[in-house]
């Protein structure tokens, strides 16, 4: 390294003991392309180092190096943070890339799976299915890493039936700020286990999960209705009908659905975990707004996840792009009244977006996710029955496009009753003031206390992570 060497890099290189591909630094050739690989190109950040450890002992050594040099740390599993928080979110952090932690083991007597934190969701699906036709709840983007996904919530179309991905976690191995490699579960380090299930990036580096699994549903009904009216105002009544289904407290839990608005049209998607006869018996098909181009398919478990990913074009998730996003969670009492929906959609028609690539996804949640008490894990959105997430993409990304989403968000806040507040940390929004309160709500004070116990120096940190209680 010559003159490029620093105390931090010398320490990290000593941990790597000369291993090729262990670490890279800003002076390393093709550093951004091969090592940093930012997901959101509108959120530029340069880590002080990107390290690819192979063992928990490696991670402990890297943490010691960062702590000694007073450098912040963040782990990255899939690298899909909207604000590049897996890279630290700000210049100068150490990013621990978990790509080498993809081990897998199924205990066929208990059906508990041990899964490395660097495993991508598409691989999780395949490995579980091949190990006995098993499954867990998770999102549909195949390239997202389990480590980040499972520790902030992990919502997907099956969450109404099975709960969130983090509700399947029984135990973790985690390396904490003091360099200890620890196990955490309901019976051991239970406070740390509580915090990890919703906010792990603030507390340590999770290396593996022990998760309960379920038999994969043998039959899944999937449908989509595509509407190409050209004006969003014409689709406002369709959205209101769809929203009424989502708000129904008796909605069959085997059903997940989204309403996606985009240029020139909208799409309603649905996934029902059961047979066609069972789906028809629920009465849901007769409640879905009609009039669009209909597509219906019967799939198995793996095929259903492929179809869900294609519905949202998420197989493009490997492609970095400059984008901006906003989101919000809705309780049942927060549903937008039909007259306000009409005004909102008319406003969308009239507003210059500054880009041709934009979309807004409204998705149903609740069901089994809400069966777990708010204080049972640090994930704090058990009372939400719907989320929205919006996106604008542009090369370059214009301020006009960002303003469109910001104004859309403000109008939703204005039109939704009862002081709608808070959003899922998986839809991270660096523009939020007091983002921690939005992400963790009433669970934040307890998180801050646990943070002080396990990471008082705030070593695991990004711009919106949990701070130790008493810190400025």
Automatic annotation (TrEMBL):
Say which family it is in. Belongs to the oxygen-dependent FAD-linked oxidoreductase family.
GO MF terms listed in the record are: FAD binding; oxidoreductase activity
Q: Could you tell me the keywords of this UniProt record?
A: FAD, Flavoprotein, Oxidoreductase
Every FAD-binding PCMH-type domain range: 43-216
Protein name (record): FAD-binding PCMH-type domain-containing protein
The record ties this protein, via Gene3D superfamilies, to: 3.30.465.10, 3.40.462.20
Q: Which InterPro entries match?
A: BBE (IPR012951), FAD-bd_PCMH (IPR016166), FAD-bd_PCMH-like_sf (IPR036318), FAD-bd_PCMH_sub2 (IPR016169), FAD-linked_Oxidoreductase (IPR050416), Oxid_FAD_bind_N (IPR006094), Oxy_OxRdtase_FAD_BS (IPR006093)
Coiled coil located at which positions?
none
